């Protein structure tokens, strides 16, 4: 943050760099450094008050990652018309999106209105990991207004002239002192301002269009944020082994021993273990279609076969028999975890 402040102070002190690409980039770096510092301080304070283990326990539904991509900010039609008519006086608006969650702050690329496009399209991907089901991700849209840069590169850096631009003062090796006036200052405040806020949760992540809050009246933004979001559980419950499945064959019930794999919310089964990964499964049960909150061992009144589990899928009660009671408990635990993940993340 101090380094960004020094570079920005130098740009602000020199007329050649007023509104330049170097100054705008310095403002972006200072904004990102300040936001990350604030997020780290807030996290440190949270750990002091709540303790290191508060909120860090593993949820039964596990954790997930959220990826944001293809962010778009449409611009107002009246702003575009004024820009086309040249009524803005060379004003340029620079935008950057910050994705914030706990101590994490991710930044998009920086785009400006100088190109005359009707929509600002951010092409980079931003991914947050280790999100609990009650996650809250905040997207801040920040803007900086400058004048369009008109000074040529050669004149800005005084190339080809006797008066050379010295960005870094020369150090006297004998005395250790610098020659010339060095720019030294404390941390500066970013000139970027907040022009839009969006909150992302488990309830709204499937949407692709979001309303921006806190948009100033004079902002060129239309007031919406378009984005593609992908929410993926970081680890699916996985169980494999033999189960004897009750199946309807020609209207008659029959038990068939199958090699089963529980993975990615699906229970697939083959005739032999060596068929897994080589042949297509003989069938599968999609846990998204299950109406049960959990699987359970059934009593002998329901099924005389020992170690039998019941699971309702697509309106049909499926009976699955394990070889031993320990195996039945293992399958119950795996199926219940998968059902809970399916209900929670729905992805």
UniProtKB/TrEMBL annotation:
Record GO biological process: actomyosin contractile ring assembly; mitotic cytokinesis; septin ring organization
Signal peptide start-end: none
Pfam families attached to this UniProt entry: Anillin (PF08174), PH (PF00169)
UniProt superkingdom: Eukaryota
UniProt cross-references to InterPro entries, sorted A to Z: AHD, Cytokinesis/Rho-signaling, PH-like_dom_sf, PH_Anillin, PH_domain
GO cellular component: a single term: actomyosin contractile ring
Annotated SMART domains: PH (SM00233)
Family annotation (CDD domains): PH_anillin
PH domain mapped to chain residues: 236-340
PANTHER family assigned: ANILLIN, ANILLIN/RHOTEKIN RTKN
Protein name: Putative actin-binding protein
Gene source species: Ixodes ricinus (Common tick)
Source organism phylogeny: Eukaryota, Metazoa, Ecdysozoa, Arthropoda, Chelicerata
